[in-house]
Each structure stands twice: as C-alpha cells, then as structure tokens.
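Section handout 9: paired folding examples.
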Amino acid sequence: MASARKSPKEKWWQFEAMEWVALALAFLGIVAVFCIFFIRRSVIEYNVEHTYAVSDPEFFGSALALYDPVPLPGNKIELLQDGDAYFPAMLAAIRGAKKTVNFEAYILHSDKIGQTFRDAFIERAQAGVEVRLILDGIGSGWGLDNSDVGMMKEAGCKFVYYHPVLSWRIDRTNRRSHRRVLVVDGRVGFTGGAGFADQWAGHAQDKDHWHDVQVRVEGPLVSALQNAFEEHWIKTFGETLSGAHQFPALPPAGEMKGQVIASHSFSVAPVPLTQAIAFAAAEKRIWITNPYCTPTGDQVELLV
C-alpha cells in the first residue's frame, strides 16, 4: 500500500505557515510586555497652591483629610536611624509579642539579617503567637530561599508572596508592594524604608551598607498601620483580621499627630499628591530624605 507523501511545495508552505504563527505570537508577546510596562494611565496634573501654611488649622482640617484615615492625635512616634537602631527595636518587639505579629516587606533575604528575623518569627509562632508575613514576589522572591520559607510555614507562620513572579497574571508583574509594615499585638507599629537584608545592617559605614530610617509608633495611629497590612493580606491570603488581639482599644500614647497614607496600584497617586500639598504649605524649610528621587512635574514646580 503506497504511503502518501507531501510534495516539497507542500512542506515549504507548512514550514512558512509555522513561521508566521511563531512570528505572530512573538509580536503579541512584545505588545503585551509593552502594555504592561510602558503604557501608563493618564496622570492628573494637580493644581496645588499656597493657600494655607502648615501651622494653619486648614492644613490638617482639609488638605490631609483627603484620605481615610484622617490625621490621628495622641501618638508617640520615635525616629530610628540606620540598622543599628531599627533592627534591634523591631526584633525586640517581635520577640516580645504575646498574640499577633503582622509583617510586610519588599525585601527579606536569606542572609544574616534576614535569617535573624526568620528565627524570631519561627520562635514566636512555635510559642502560639499568630504570625503573618507578606513579602513581595520580586523583592524577596529572588533573595529568600525556599528552605527558609518552608521553615517558617512548618513552624506555623502564615506566609504569602505579593504578586509572585511565577504567575499566569502577567498584568501584575510590574505591580509591586513596597510597603514596610510591622505591627505587634495591634499596639506597636513600625514603618519606613528599610529592607531586611545585610546591606541595611550597621550605620551606613561604607558603600556596601545603606542609610535608611524607620519609625516606631504607639497610639491610635497603629490601627492605621494595621489597616494597611490587612488590605494586602485580604488581597493575597483572603483572610480578614478582626478582634481585640488585632485591633485593641488604643489610648493616647503621646502628643504627636500622624497619618498613614498608603499607596495603591493604579490609584490617583495619593502619596505624590499629599507630598505636593505639604510642599505648598511649607513656611520656612523643606527637608527630604529618600533613597529614590523621582519628583513629578507638579512637585518640581512647587519646590522651585
């Protein structure tokens, strides 16, 4: 029985069709990457003018009341400069936890600093404390060993990556969480710019160690930090936080007024807007310390 053979012409057409399909898929992939990383939503240019000063009641009464929660009085806020100050303070708070530890960070790596925090989380979880961790899928996902994650989970820590790299949701690839939040027993909170890796250890003593700051918070403002953590915890883990062990009654702990302004993916950029409002209300001086300096056009005009 004679077998049917394709002619050279038929093979050529089949090969050409496969090439066109591959080319089309590659083109669609390039378009998808371009849309994810380079196409941005239209940005509103804010009309912010110097209509009141920081010392005027309107500053807190209207300008910063754009967001919820509004500025809260009665807080104690301590500035901690460099790893020599904030790492011991944060570890002491974790090790002293009695009920809950909620931790979110962009960077937690498997080095000396990262594993010190890992061990603190594990010890508290084994002691019966509820420990929850949210780590960014890129910032931590490439520097935290799976063995360390496994150890924390085995000890009882609830762990989740925020937008993990290996996900079918490629539209989330460029949506990262840069939040740094630690809340212990719902009563003591920390936030700032630090990463939890060896580069942040010490006091910026050389080019391999970095300067950064954190703040330690007590008072009603801690509940706002807890809300910021809970927002991403619900989104990634699907669990709400409730009860007095998460949101206890918080009496005044000091005389400072403070506000937590959390950034959101594809929001109307509350952080840059609030910064612009603060710039416009300045009376004498503006001091800025930040590892990244990418001001918007509105902010540059106000600073000038």
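Moving on to protein 2 of 2.
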Amino acid sequence: MEEGSAQVEMIVTEEHLNAAQVCQGGVIFTLADLAFALASNSYGTLALAIKASITYIKPAKKGDLLIAKAEEFSRSKSLATYHITVFRGPTQEKIAFFEGMVYRFDKPVFPENS
C-alpha cells in the first residue's frame, strides 16, 4: 500500500459474535482502528489518535470476510484525518464507516536502540 493508506482483513468467527449473533461492534471498531494506525504511521513518523468515531451501517455475521481500507483525507504538519471503510468482501457491501484524527509527532515510529 502507499503512504497514507492501509488495508487489513479478518474473518468473523464464533468468538466475535454478540448476543444477537452478529459481530460485536468493538471487533469492527478494532479492525478499522488497526487500518487507521497503519495508515497514519506509514510515513515512518509517530502519529497517535486524538479522535475516532464509527458509524455502523449493516451487521456482519459469522463467516464474513471483513476488509477495512484506510485512506488519508487530509494531512498537515501536526494533524491528519483518515477515512476508513469496513466492507464485506468480495461483495464490497459497506458494513461501517470510521473517521479518525491523529496528532503527528516529529519523531520516528521505531526509534533506534541506544
């Protein structure tokens, strides 16, 4: 993937289901958050979330392949915003929309050991 973007995926299993037998919202949030973290740190400089929100559109069920695709929406010296769409593969049916903002630090993600 290019700098400023990322894609991750998972398969919904029994352990991810809630009492309604659909994927628990926190699982979907975590998948989107992982794509957000990978995209925002893809430049090699540390970026930490200061805001994140999600809108659930449709439920995901056991056996579904969920794909979270993160794209950079805007970036300045200190702030960046990312849009993450979670969809059901291979149909591309939208499951959730996540928006996150990071504060960008002027230091590497993985500092060298001294």
